[in-house]
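Journal club prep — side note

Before the paper discussion, L.F. wants everyone to see what a predicted structure for a comparable chain looks like in token form. Sequence:
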Amino acid sequence: MAADLLRASNHTQEVLRKADEAKSDTMRQLWEREQKLDRFKSRLPWFGLGAVVLALVLTVTLPRFLASNASMCAVLGASWTTTTTGVDACVFYQR
């Protein structure tokens, strides 16, 4: 009976040790995730600023790029004409 109790006690200690290791691993993983989240939060304003700058750049350059050929000029609702100096241009006429 004493041997059975000793085996049961050893088994219980082993199970408790494994549970403690699992708890430590879980706490470490949680800490690592919190650290990643904190790094992301510190970079978030820079991502927002980058998005604003990109939107401003595209606001200026995208229509100019789209108006660089006759078919896209027509899609924009403008007319593809030649100026008096002989340069092709996408022109929006006022009506």
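L.F.'s comment for the group: The chain has a mean pLDDT of 90. Keep this in mind when we get to the figures.
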